[in-house]
Each structure stands twice: as C-alpha cells, then as structure tokens.
C-alpha cells in the first residue's frame, strides 16, 4: 500500500479491509473492472439475468468516489441525456432496500437548489420545462413553503428549485450492499484484485489479466472511475477525463434544521441517517493540474469557461505523480492500479475551514456542532459533465462506463441496469446513444449543463 492509503480522517465510516482473493476464476461471461456503484450495480443486474459475471476491484468496494460522495440522489437539474436513466434509477432506489434486504439509508426527503439572486431563480425556472416534459414534480418554492423546508434559514434566499421526490442515501452503505446482493445472485466480487490489462484474439477481447491471474472472457466493462482514462490509454484509446477534488465533512448528530438536500453557493448539505450532516462547499472546485489537463485542455474549454469563477487550479505533487506514471506496462509486472489501491486525497484544510464558517453562517443552529470526520474524493469529469457509456467499436468486446462527473451516485443503479442491457443486448428502454465516447471526437458541440 502507498501513503495515499493511510486514513486522513478523524474516524471512519468506511470498511477499509482489503482481502485479496485466493485465486481468480478461469473464465467468465463478463468481467467488470471497478467496484464503485456503477460496477456493482451492473454486476447485480447481470447476475439477476443469470450471467456469469466477475467484478475485479483493485482496492475495496466503494473505496473511491462511490463511498466518498455527498449521498445526493437527485433528478433535478440534470442534463436531458441522462435524465431518463436517472428517473429509472430513482425507481430502483425506491425498491432497493426491499429487494436486497439491506439498509442503504435511502430517504426521499427532497432536493433544493436555493437562489440568492433573481437571475439564479430565473435559470432554475428554465429547467422546469424539462421537468414537465419528463413528468417530474420539480417546482419553484418561495416564502412559507421554503421556510417549511429549511426553517429560519429561508430568509437568506429568494426561493428555490425544489423536487420533493428527490432523495439521499448513505454512500458507505449503498455500493457494498449492492455488491453483496450481486454476490447472492452468483456474481463473483474480487477485492484487492487490480486488472492490469486485456488480451485479444483475432482482434476481439479474449481475457483480462489481473494481478492474481488471467480470466478468459469475451466481454469486459471498464467502470474504473478516475482510472478509466489511464486504463484505456494503455490500450491506445483516448478517454478525455480530468479530476476535481471535492472536500467534505460530516458533523456529529445535531438538531434537524432542514428536510432535504440543500445546495447554495456557500454549502451543499444533507441530513445523514446518523442524525449528523454531510457538508461541502457550494462553490469551490479544486483541480490539481496534471499532464492530462494539457492533453485534454481543448475539449474541456467550455466546462472551464463555465466554472472559471469557482475553479481553483493548483500545481503540485499530482502533476509529478501523473508525469511519472507509465501509460503502458507489461501485464506480468505491477501496474499503477496496484500501486494506489485507494485514491485517498488529503482534504484541503483551508476549504474545510471555509465550510465550517459557511455552515455556521447559513445554519447558525449548527455553528457549535462538532465535526466528526473530514475527507476528500477525486471526482472524475467528462468534458460535457455527462457520462460516457458505450461499446468501444475498434476493440470488440470492450465497453466503457465512466465520466459520471460528480453525479453518478444517484445514477448508479439506473446506469447498472442500462449497462447490463447494453452488454447482453437486452432492451431496457434507456437510450444510451447520446452517451457514446465518440461525441468528443466527431465534431459534436461540447455543451456542459451543470456540475452540481
Ligand atoms: C466529494 C464527492 C461528492 C459527490 N457527490 C455526489 C452526490 O451527492 N450525488 C451523486 O450522484 N454523485 C456524487 N458524486 C459522484 C459519484 O460519487 C460518482 O459519480 C460515482 O460514485 C462514480 O461511480 P463509479 O462506480 O463510476 O466510480 P468509482 O466509485 O470511483 O469506482 C471506480 C472503482 O474502480 C476501481 N478501479 C480502477 N481501476 C481499476 C483496475 N485497473 N482494476 C480494478 N479496479 C479498478 C477503483 O479502485 C474504484 O473503486 C460525488 C463524488 C465526490 C468525489
């Protein structure tokens, strides 16, 4: 393990055990690379169809983004290309605990994007047309209705975009529970098992090579989160992807000051199942500059322009780490994936301090609530902040599901269903055509909608 694996938190709600498998199965119908919410949900849907699926995770389930996120499960404000999949995902979340028999902390407590300026409220109102077309219960609320949601804090805001059917779940519970459900249906979930690369025969995928041996297969899904671009580059496939560090804290249990998830320029906050709050800054995106920043700069220009006011660029050890990282390696030697079992960036002390100040200003009742834990996570983004889910045509048998861009936790179960359909050729009613990787290379305009 590397230094990045050492916990930088006060106390932890994550299961960090790393138990390597005794060996790997000789073959599988499908191999999934990555045990985040996208990988485990896909494994679950495949296993339910009777597909012989093996999932390989280099660290532990939900060790990276899927266990570190804010826990918002929201439909509102999404890009229309992913909205039908998100609505499907919400249906799955609603039934999830009953179906798998485990608690994932899912609650439909609503979601609010609050506005301090009329311009913001007008922009939210624009999205209502999309909500209406998709049959969502999103509306603008003001005055008494806003106060019912957030108490006296409401006086800071002109109003909010509000979706009562949106919700939240506990990230440290959800993906591990789905992984167990997949295993109960026959999926093999291997942790501490990095995939180093692929083998082909007659131009088609024929096997994955893991650190513990080879698994013969004709179908491989790369759901490797922040590592997808590197994995694909080792195969000669360009996947534009950049990382943004999110810094988060959770408070000790405290008085209930709001019902749902609230997003403001000062804080993003939601109530936790343990009675505390998960809180982040509403307007700081930290991007550590790396060689990938220059490699993909042109494709990310529209997103950079849109987020310029909230973007904090820095250049430090991440640049050197990536610069020194090989983009190709022999499959019988240690790969970069084993060298960083769990991507565990240090939370920025200055951002955490700002979150504390903003929390106290926005919700004075929480000003003296102790901070129980702080952490950070690397969000992987695509140039238009919408995922890439598609087959890689020039590598038959190889598929990609990545670029969930800071909102893939809520989308995970719906994505898993859609991806399982894509891999088995089963109709799910979810159209993935607009999520193909090629949109970044065929001259299509790159138009990011929202990074919330
Ligand atoms: C701070 C923060 C806040 C967020 N808030 C929200 C939110 O409120 N709501 C929301 O919907 N989304 C949110 N997100 C985004 C969401 O967490 C991600 O979009 C989602 O978890 C992505 O899931 P994933 O399975 O694609 O990737 P990940 O969870 O990153 O999983 C990928 C896995 O692949 C593994 N892996 C990589 N390479 C290999 C290899 N070669 N071999 C084996 N394993 C490999 C990694 O170890 C990792 O566990 C947030 C993210 C962060 C970081």
What report would you give on this structure?
The chain is 30% helix and 23% strand. By secondary structure, the chain is α/β, with parallel strands linked by helices. It has an 8-stranded mixed β-sheet, with helices on both faces. It has a 6-stranded mixed β-sheet with strand order 8-2-1-12-21-20. The chain is globular. The site of flavin-adenine dinucleotide (FAD) has 41 residues, from helix 1, helix 2, strand 13, strand 19 and helix 13. The site of flavin-adenine dinucleotide has 41 residues, from helix 1, helix 2, strand 13, strand 19 and helix 13.
> What is the molecular shape?
globular
Helix count from the secondary structure assignment: 13
Distance between the termini: 33 Å
How would a textbook summarize the main sheet?
8 strands, mixed
Biggest sheet: strand arrangement: 5-6-4-14-15-16-13-19
Number of strands: 21
Mean pLDDT: 94
- Name the beta content range: 15-25%
Rg from Cα: 21 Å
Percent in helix: 25-40%
Structural class, from secondary structure content?
A: alpha/beta
Q: Pick out the low-confidence regions.
A: 1-14
Q: Bound compounds, please?
A: flavin-adenine dinucleotide
Key phrases:
single chain, 452 residues, six-stranded mixed β-sheet, 21 strands, binds flavin-adenine dinucleotide
Q: What's the short version?
A:
With 452 residues, this protein is of the alpha/beta class. It contains 13 helices and 21 strands.
Set down the secondary structure blueprint.
Elements: E1 30-33, H1 37-48, E2 53-56, H2 65-68, E3 72-73, H3 83-100, E4 111-115, H4 118-133, E5 138-141, H5 143-150, E6 159-163, E7 167-168, H6 171-184, E8 188-190, E9 195-201, E10 204-210, E11 213-216, E12 219-222, H7 228-233, E13 242-251, E14 261-263, E15 267-271, E16 277-281, E17 285-288, H8 291-295, H9 297-307, E18 311-314, H10 317-324, H11 336-339, H12 349-362, E19 371-381, E20 388-391, E21 398-402, H13 408-424
Parallel strand pairs: 1-2, 1-12, 2-8, 4-14, 12-21, 17-18
Antiparallel strand pairs: 3-7, 4-6, 5-6, 9-10, 10-11, 13-16, 13-19, 14-15, 15-16, 20-21
Helix pairs in contact: 1-6, 1-13, 3-13
This protein binds flavin-adenine dinucleotide.
